[in-house]
Design brief:
Blueprint (H helix, E strand, L loop, with lengths): L19 H9 L7 E2 L9 H11 L11 H14 L9 H10 L6 H17 L2 H11 L6 E2 L1 H9 L8 H9 L14 H13 L7
Parallel strand pairs: 1-2
Helix pairs in contact: 2-8, 2-9, 4-5, 4-6, 8-9
């Protein structure tokens, strides 16, 4: 017997460019503009962007199979204490699953779907391809998706031309891209940028 609302989408990652979150934003903005993206090949991303993303978003990226159970358990405990979802506990693979196939809505059924799709991705797709998709589809501002488009919009340059500080600023706003801009000099952005710079060199990447 199927569980209502528990359909897991067919995995077609490698041909995907328009994501579920992009379509969500298009609808939320009353069809006024379509979210923009410039696809960048993995090898053209600066090392600082790749390492910064892994360092801040999924330190165990190279070692898990789609799920970081230790981090998820910590997130569940934090959510239980607060009585609401305040920490997602998502790996980079889960974030790719969410961005491509789902939306930004938060509930435990959706999280379970993310886990199932993420675990399947890890079996069928290389870590390099997963990280490439992550860096290309992550939301970084209103209508701005991916490091390539963000580099052009905020810094008027190609992704491969980003400095370490510029890459760190982009990574710093991933948790709240609609509230913070990488070019802001607010304390929150500066603090997270400093953490990205401090951690990036130790991150393992494909």
């Amino acid at each position: 017997m199927a569980i209502p609302g528990f359909h897991v989408p067919t995995l077609e990652l490698m041909s995907t460019r328009i994501s579920g979150v992009m379509e969500q934003r298009f609808l939320q903005n009353y069809f006024i503009y379509y979210p923009s993206q410039d696809w960048v090949d993995y090898d053209l991303f600066p090392q600082s962007a790749k390492q910064g993303a892994v360092a801040m978003e999924d330190g165990m990226f190279m070692h898990h199979k789609g799920m970081d159970w230790v981090n998820l358990n910590a997130s569940m405990r934090a959510n239980k204490r607060r009585g609401k979802i305040v920490r997602g506990g998502s790996t980079i693979t889960m974030q790719v699953a969410k961005n491509i196939y789902f939306t930004t809505s938060r509930n435990y059924f959706r999280k379970a779907k993310e886990i199932l799709v993420a675990m399947r991705m890890e079996k069928e797709i290389s870590k390099k391809d997963i990280l490439e998709h992550y860096l290309n589809i992550i939301e970084l501002g209103r209508g701005i998706f991916g490091i390539g488009k963000a580099a052009d919009y905020y810094y008027n340059r190609y992704a491969e031309e980003l400095s370490r500080e510029q890459a760190a600023r982009l990574i710093a706003v991933i948790p709240s891209p609609l509230k913070n801009k990488p070019t802001d000099n607010r304390s929150l952005v500066l603090s997270r940028k400093s953490r990205v710079l401090a951690r990036m060199s130790s991150a393992e990447i494909p």
